[in-house]
Amino acid sequence: MSNLPNCPKCGSEYTYNDGSMYICPECAHEWSAEAQAENTSDDRVIKDANGNLLQDGDSVTVIKDLKVKGSSLVVKVGTKVKNIRLVDGDHDIDCKIDGIGAMKLKSEFVKKV
Q1: Engineered SS bond to 113: which of 59, 69, 87, 92, CB 3.0-4.6 Å?
Q2: pTM, rounded to two decimals
Q3: Where is each Protein YjdM C-terminal domain found (predicted)?
Q4: How many domains does the chain have?
C-alpha cells in the first residue's frame, strides 16, 4: 500500500516520487511535496459576495430576495442576520432570521456588515 498522495489534477492513484517532486504518469502533472503540504490544511475560507472573509458570529445582510423552500415566505433584500455560524456544505451559513426561524444560506447571497 503506497502512502503517496493522489494526483490533485486528475485524481490518479498511480503517482510516484522523483526526488522532491510528485509525478502523475496519467496526466503528466508535477507538484512539489511542499505544495502538497499546503493543500492539505483544513482551513476553510468562506467569503461573502464582496470577497470579505466571514467568521462565526459575524453579522451579514442579504443582498437578494430569497424564497424559503417549502413556504410562501421570502427573505427580503437588506435583511440583517446576526450571529452566523459557518458550516460545511453547499449552504455554508447556518443562522436564525427574525420572523422566519432557522435557515441555511449561501455565502454568495450575503455581505458582511
Answers
A1: 59
A2: 0.62
A3: 46-113
A4: 2
Domain of 15, in residue numbers: 1-40
Instruction: Give residue 1's pLDDT.
Output: 45
Q: For residue 44, what are the CA distances in angstroms to 3, 8, 28, 55? A: 25, 18, 29, 10
* 43 exposure class (CB count in 10 Å sphere: 0-12, 13-18, 19+): exposed
Report yes or no on 88 lying in a domain: yes
Identity of the amino acid at 74: V
Q: Is residue 11 domain-resident?
A: yes
Sole residue written with cell 490544511: 41
What's the rounded Cα separation, in Å, for the pair 59 and 50?
14
